[in-house]
Amino acid sequence: MTIAPAKEFLKQSEFEQLLDYRRSVANIYADLRRSDLSDEETCRRFRAQRDHLFASHPQSALSEVQRANFKALPYYPYDPKWRLVLPVNTKVEQETIKVELQGDGLVRMQRFGQIEFEVAGRAVSLSLFWVMGYGGGIFLPFRDLTNEETTYGGGRYLLDTIKHADLGHEDNRLVIDFNYAYNPSCAYNPRWHCPLAPRENWLPVAISAGEQRYPD
Fold first, then answer.
1. For residues 212 and 215, what is the distance between their CA atoms, to the nearest angstrom?
2. If you average pLDDT over residues 47-74, what whole number do you get?
3. How far apart are CA 92 and CA 77, in angstroms?
4. DSSP state of 187
5. How far is residue 183's CA from residue 154's CA, in Å, rounded to a whole number?
6. How many CB atoms within 10 Å of residue 209?
7. Residue 89 to residues 41, 123, 140, 155, 174: CA-CA distances in angstroms?
8. Where does the pLDDT of residue 54 fall: very low under 50, low under 70, confident under 90, or very high at 90 and above?
9. Which helix (H) or strand (E) holds 51?
10. Taking 90 as the threshold, does the pLDDT of residue 158 lie above it?
């Protein structure tokens, strides 16, 4: 992954910078989907690339002051048990959920499917949403029992294909790898406003994988 030198960003408008950031995120996820490294090495490389992007890009979720003091994002150690490949149950009520966001207005998300799995012998499920509007995309936010302790209190994201957070498919099943769970932008500073997991995606178990709470 390459990122334009800082001096090059000075020549770009804010929207061009954002385009470059989105392109960089897309490249990181494309790298992991086509990687021929082990799952653990692929995850390690992904995290290093994401650290570099957060530290160096003007459109990072971090403020300029945070970037100046940045060392690395905190993560749980990679654990292969959290990598799942699951079918999507589409026999669900396709309800539309409306979320009002400051600055962005009304966001509508339609439930289109559900994934089911077990954590420590307990059966749980998460709803999958399609963000409605031009283009759209799959969105999978969740909360779990690690929130407020080791992870961000508002929950985390796993998939957001509008922002290129896409782990892919295997054999027509969705890759659900919680080692790649990440914080919404609002976890880093209050200038961001993010849609959080609806109540149906609050898991009664601990997902001890992926990104932890940012210490700032």
1. 9
2. 96
3. 34
4. G
5. 9
6. 25
7. 31, 15, 14, 23, 11
8. very high
9. helix 39-56
10. yes
